[in-house]
């Protein structure tokens, strides 16, 4: 009983100590010059979707600093397509963009796509990307534990001829929903072999598993992983450095193609 | 040029051969038999002649034939005069009695002021047990390495940690040795305590420049920790009971020829957390508190074969263990060092030749075993060394000492071992590298008293390294000189090259047990440093020592990691390294009061440290994290009464250079991935490496040691107050999203500082019977 009381006292003391160890402080940040941020995705059969905005000083007043009125040109095989400043809202996903082209993209795996952006202040961004072929999901198998919960085991083959980068997402019942699995992986462990990747036990009988396997370009993959590291570096003293690798010259963000295989399976 | 240097060394040595004889032996404490390092032996008939005992209290004196009178003295002991009839080489052992008003514990002091003036060695700091036991410490845990952090040129790598940065070097550029055995991760509790238990350690010497030729392997410093010599008079049991850990040690003789010392230390927070977990065991949704402890076990056995030959075995093992006893995510993380060495000291009949042969085994490893869901993760890395060393010193004449020897190391690395297993074999992963390497070195050096004013130490080390097809070798010249303007003022200068063949993969801004040692390969070249240092040393009335030292250090091929490097579970980690150069320069001023009731020192360092990597920040040079422009330390110990000592330390330094985001932007990452909280889409923008300077760091610690007068033995109680004026020094600055009264994000952010140590009192009870 005495020991229990002592432990309570120690716990309270530790709690008080930790509470005393945080404080708001004034950080004297150097003046921040906003930069253009580009995020653009090309996808077979979909319109060009592009968001152009500005970065802000970390402690600046909140706003969504969209940059309108810029000249955006997508170049491919010597043809230039101007992307108009027309907002686009994807009803399926609820995501919005401030530049879009009504012409659906037709995939060309052989030639690169280049984007050039010039805003009203004369700031210029360029970025290049290319399509890579999707990798097919071989199977999604639910695996049960004794509590009747299941995880989704996704299998696909890695191409040994090249370095491959993947993003595998799994959702439950609705295709665009909170992720049950969001894995960024390369083929370091299993070059040229079958890759098996499982989720947690987040499914049950009657659920539908929606699996999307993105085959990412190296640029896109590095942007995703380093952006993730930067977010961690902001709050974690043990995190690695927070520089983000971007394929956008003259600014921030990413210009990427989306190639993926999508499959769903109902758990019986 | 190299041949010329060797020729000069050997010719210079042999040219001094004269009909002198040597007298050798040991000066020790009469009560315990423990050798007294730094005891003065003066030849009264020959002004200026004499010597000092080494770290074990041993000495070699070269004298002309005939009657000589020597005086043997040591601070706190009754001096002795001996008349020697020198007609043959002989061994004598001298036992000094403690002066009446001294406390009975054998304390080991560093070099005397006079030694520091007359030695050729620049840039060395020696910290002894007595000083460490007198100073205030965090949580009451006495730590010799933290005392080193109070010396100029030595910086703590983080709040409260025992990691050090020496003259702009990174943490992996320090060679920690325990009785000559490498300790790869010399800290517990994620760096907050060093692995060196005060009950097992005699002293620690830190070399910052002018490295003796026998040392190599790291670019910036050598931290040489010497174990405590066991007592040979009677058994003693001692220890301490503190807030977070307790210690126990036993020392004494077994017969006439064997003596031993065993010391242990363990923390016990886990006892309380276990009790809480047991109590909460039946509650639904109770989150168990992790169980954590660390322990150290040190042992040393000395065996005296005869007057000219002795053996000792030194062993250390210590581990940290962290266990999360959750049903959902069960994890055990343990890491630790082992250091074992066997030493054989021999002295020739005429005592001109001394040999030290030793074999060493060093090991560091960490292992993380977790079970989550259906998976068992087994992750680990480690390194194991088998080392043979030989060091011979030869005194061809009264003004020459030649030292030569070599060492050979076989190392086994285990890097990024990752084993993931589940019931489904196709989900399993097994990866990792296990390189084996050879590393060795040969060295020769000479100390030459050219004249009473001028002394020269010159040496050459040749080191080599091989791993599979990759092999490297490099000369490492060392030279230092002292010119004495008077017996109390000298000017010294030194140059040293160091080569480092093994590199630490530091995965974060903090020193973690998961940091991995990685050998040089065909892609990863050795790192080099060249350092020049010059010092003016003034012994002011045998009470004060004033030193002003300047240094310039150039670093080449230092390593870092490319942006986005994959450091975890990577079979080809060498592809993630980037290589660059660095420089460090500064001025260190040090004033120490070495005697009297008030002792202590004031140190000030003005320094710059730079790094340049072609692949970081576009090749622009930047400050590493531990660059600090100003660094001040004030240390005072005041013996108010014979049994009451007060102490205080105050430190001030420029804040660390850290990477802090100055901007932010929104990135959805993928059109089809739904994000619950919009704040999760914010990406911080870090403009450059270490772009922000943290606020200045300053802290006052107070200590109070009261020695009781029990009927038997010694006991004392120590009170410490860490951070006495409760300065909240930021350890980390982070941005947090502001929320409105309904808990929704407002879209604005505020900066928040996390502090580790507010005002912290602690108490420790120490005993010795």
UniProtKB/TrEMBL annotation, chain A:
InterPro entries: DUF4249 (IPR025345). It comes from the Bacteria. Pfam families: DUF4249. This is DUF4249 domain-containing protein. It comes from Fibrisoma montanum. The lineage of its organism: Bacteria, Pseudomonadati, Bacteroidota, Cytophagia, Cytophagales.
UniProtKB/TrEMBL annotation, chain B:
GO terms for cellular component: cell outer membrane. GO terms for biological process: siderophore transmembrane transport. It comes from the Bacteria. This is TonB-dependent receptor. Residues 1-17 form the signal peptide. One of its GO terms (molecular function) is siderophore uptake transmembrane transporter activity. Residues 289-723 form the TonB-dependent receptor-like beta-barrel domain. Residues 117-217 form the TonB-dependent receptor plug domain. Keywords: Cell outer membrane, Membrane, Receptor, Signal, TonB box, Transmembrane, Transmembrane beta strand, Transport. It comes from Fibrisoma montanum. PANTHER family: HEMOGLOBIN AND HEMOGLOBIN-HAPTOGLOBIN-BINDING PROTEIN 1-RELATED, TONB-DEPENDENT OUTER MEMBRANE RECEPTOR. It is found in: Cell outer membrane.
């Amino acid at each position: 009983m005495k020991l229990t009381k002592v432990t309570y006292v120690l716990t309270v003391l530790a709690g008080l100590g930790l509470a005393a160890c945080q404080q708001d402080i004034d950080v004297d940040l150097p003046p921040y010059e906003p930069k253009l941020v580009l995020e653009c995705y090309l996808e077979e059969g979909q319109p060009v979707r592009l968001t152009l905005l500005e970065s802000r000083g970390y402690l600046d007043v909140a706003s969504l600093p969209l940059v309108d009125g810029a000249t955006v040109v997508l170049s491919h095989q010597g043809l230039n397509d101007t992307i108009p400043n027309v907002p686009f809202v994807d009803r399926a996903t609820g995501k919005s963009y401030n530049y879009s082209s009504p012409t659906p993209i037709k995939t060309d795996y052989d030639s690169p796509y280049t984007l050039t952006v010039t805003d009203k202040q004369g700031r210029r961004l360029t970025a290049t990307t290319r399509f890579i072929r999707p990798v097919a999901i071989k199977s999604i198998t639910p695996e049960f534990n004794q509590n009747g919960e299941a995880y989704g085991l996704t299998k696909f083959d890695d191409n040994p001829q090249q370095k491959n980068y993947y993003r595998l997402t799994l959702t439950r019942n609705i295709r665009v929903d909170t992720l049950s699995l969001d894995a960024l992986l390369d083929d370091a462990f299993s070059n040229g072999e079958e890759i098996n990747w499982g989720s947690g036990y987040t499914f049950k009988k009657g659920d539908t598993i929606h699996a999307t396997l993105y085959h990412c370009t190296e640029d896109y993959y590095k942007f995703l992983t380093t952006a993730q590291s930067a977010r961690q570096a902001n709050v974690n003293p043990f995190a690695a450095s927070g520089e983000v690798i971007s394929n956008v010259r003259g600014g921030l963000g990413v210009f990427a193609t989306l190639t993926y295989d999508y499959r769903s399976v109902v758990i019986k | 040029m190299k041949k010329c240097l060797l020729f000069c060394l050997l010719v210079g040595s042999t040219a001094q051969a004269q009909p002198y004889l040597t007298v050798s032996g040991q000066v020790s404490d009469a009560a315990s038999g423990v050798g007294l390092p730094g005891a003065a032996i003066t030849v009264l008939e020959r002004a200026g002649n004499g010597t000092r005992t080494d770290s074990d209290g041993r000495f070699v004196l070269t004298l002309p034939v005939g009657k000589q009178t020597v005086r043997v003295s040591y601070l706190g002991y009754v001096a002795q005069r001996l008349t020697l009839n020198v007609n043959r080489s002989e061994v004598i052992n001298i036992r000094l009695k403690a002066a009446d008003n001294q406390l009975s514990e054998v304390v080991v002091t560093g070099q005397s002021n006079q030694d520091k003036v007359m030695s050729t060695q620049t840039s060395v700091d020696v910290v002894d047990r007595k000083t460490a036991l007198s100073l205030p410490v965090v949580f009451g845990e006495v730590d010799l390495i933290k005392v080193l952090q109070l010396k100029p040129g030595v910086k703590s790598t983080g709040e409260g940690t025992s990691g050090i940065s020496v003259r702009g070097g990174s943490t992996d550029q320090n060679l920690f040795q325990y009785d000559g055995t490498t300790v790869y991760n010399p800290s517990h509790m994620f760096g907050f305590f060093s692995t060196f238990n005060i009950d097992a350690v005699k002293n620690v010497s830190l070399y910052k420049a002018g490295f003796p030729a026998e040392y190599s392997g790291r670019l910036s410093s050598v931290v040489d920790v010497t174990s405590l010599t066991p007592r040979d008079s009677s058994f003693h049991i001692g220890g301490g009971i503190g807030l977070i850990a307790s210690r126990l040690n036993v020392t004494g003789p077994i017969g006439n020829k064997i003596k031993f010392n065993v010391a242990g230390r363990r923390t016990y927070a886990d006892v309380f957390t276990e009790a809480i977990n047991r109590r909460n065991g039946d509650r639904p949704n109770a989150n168990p508190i992790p169980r954590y402890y660390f322990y150290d076990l040190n042992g040393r056995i000395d065996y005296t074969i005869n007057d000219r030959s002795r053996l000792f075995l030194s062993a250390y093992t210590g581990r940290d263990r962290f266990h999360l006893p959750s049903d959902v995510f069960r994890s055990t993380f343990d890491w630790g060092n082992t250091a074992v060495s066997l030493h054989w000291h021999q002295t020739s009949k005429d005592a001109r030749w001394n040999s030290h042969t030793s074999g060493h085994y060093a090991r560091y490893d960490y292992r993380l075993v977790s079970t989550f869901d259906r998976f068992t993760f087994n992750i680990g890395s480690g390194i194991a060394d088998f080392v043979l060393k030989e060091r011979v010193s030869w005194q061809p004449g009264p003004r020459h000492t030649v030292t030569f020897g070599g060492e050979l190391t076989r190392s086994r690395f285990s890097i990024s071992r990752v084993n993931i297993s589940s019931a489904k074999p196709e989900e399993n992963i097994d990866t990792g590298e296990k390189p084996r390497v050879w590393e060795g070195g040969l060295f020769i050096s000479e100390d030459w008293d050219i004249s009473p004013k001028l002394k020269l130490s010159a040496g050459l080390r040749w080191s080599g390294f091989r791993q599979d097809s990759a092999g490297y070798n490099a000369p490492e010249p060392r030279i230092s000189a002292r010119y004495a303007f008077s017996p109390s003022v000298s000017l010294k200068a030194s140059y040293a090259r160091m080569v480092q063949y093994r590199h630490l993969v530091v995965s974060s801004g903090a020193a973690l047990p998961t940091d991995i040692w990685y050998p040089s390969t065909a892609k990863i070249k050795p790192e080099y440093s060249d350092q020049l240092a010059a010092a003016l040393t003034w012994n002011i009335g045998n009470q004060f020592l004033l030193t002003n030292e300047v240094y310039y250090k150039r670093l080449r091929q230092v390593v870092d990691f490319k942006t986005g490097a994959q450091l975890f579970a990577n079979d080809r980690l060498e592809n993630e390294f980037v290589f660059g150069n660095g420089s460090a320069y500064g001025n260190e001023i040090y004033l120490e009061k070495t005697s009297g009731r008030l002792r202590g020192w004031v140190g000030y360092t003005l320094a710059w440290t730079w790094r340049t990597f072609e692949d970081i920040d576009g090749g622009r040079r930047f400050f590493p994290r531990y660059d600090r422009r100003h660094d001040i330390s004030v240390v005072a110990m005041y013996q108010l009464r014979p049994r009451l000592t007060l102490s205080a330390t105050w430190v001030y330094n420029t804040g660390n250079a850290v990477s802090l985001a100055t901007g932010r932007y929104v990135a959805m990452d993928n059109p089809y991935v739904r994000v619950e909280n919009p704040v999760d889409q914010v990406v911080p923008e870090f403009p450059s490496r270490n772009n922000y300077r943290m606020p200045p760091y300053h802290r006052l610690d107070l200590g109070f040691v009261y020695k009781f007068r029990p009927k038997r033995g010694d006991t004392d109680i120590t009170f410490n107050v860490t951070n006495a004026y409760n300065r909240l020094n930021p350890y980390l600055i982070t941005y947090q999203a502001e929320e409105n009264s309904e808990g929704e994000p407002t879209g604005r952010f505020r900066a928040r500082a996390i502090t580790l140590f507010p005002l912290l009192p602690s108490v420790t009870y120490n005993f010795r019977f």
